[in-house]
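Schema walk-through. Below, the input block comes first and the output block second. Nothing else is stored per chain. Lengths vary across the set, and this one has 308 residues.
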Amino acid sequence: MSDTKTASEIASKLTAELQNLTDELAIKKVTLKYWGEMKKAVSDGNFGRCRTAFRKAIQLAFPDKNKATPGYYFTKAGKGQIERFEHLALWFATASEERWEVVGDDARKQYFTGFSSSPETATEVKPEINIPTETTTELTLESMNITTLQLDADTQQKVQDALDYSGLSLAEFIQKACTIYATTLTGKAKQFDSDLSGVETQELLSTKYKTHPGRAREMVKRAIQAIKIHNSEMVSETGDRWHINQTAIQSLTGSKPQTVKEILADYQDDINSHNATHELTPYLNRKADKRKIEDVIDVAALVPNGIE
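--- output ---
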């Protein structure tokens, strides 16, 4: 049996137990019992599809209402931001586990506006509808809809697909997206500020620093120095020397061509001087015996540490 089929069958057992239940805590208990059973029964790789199948089964058994109904809660998340009442099982059938502790309409309102949840439970209460007294109303995270974000059509569809897939409200999605993006940017900022001159070349060449934004520049500097040492101290014949250029540096560092090109511009005078001193041309790098520069010059051996 496929994982999605398994998820649907477990959801069917859930909807059968939910019949005639209107107390929120009772609905929560039953929903989480079968949610946990579903998570254990399906593979991690298929969980997203199984979650969708699980929720769809609930929606089919308990369609949305357009008025307050016992066992339902008010929402306008997803589905084009349409105001409606969804069955409470859909509130708890989510991978966002922090929502499991949010019980009652007042607690949900506080949850969306960023306040701590109330420990009290409110059931079967229709949320208050505030009628604006002015022509403009304050825009809050909870009141935003996807069109408010002014995204292009393609991005808006991707966000909507992500909302449908995750079961998150737009407010939850925005909060999580901000957290992830802020963490990523601050992490990269710390990396840019870090000095790699004290890191050994062998370690720089390892996967540990592969995505470090400062790695390419540091390795280009060391690769240039390694070629200069090889040409000046290791060999005496012109045919055994190597012309310093973008292709040679790229081969020694493994960095992207455009990145190497931009960095080399800062060292071009020094490179030109070295190439001229030894009368080196790009043609010299096409060795008759098909030698490759990365097989001849060991950057880690010639320049084991950073350059002052």
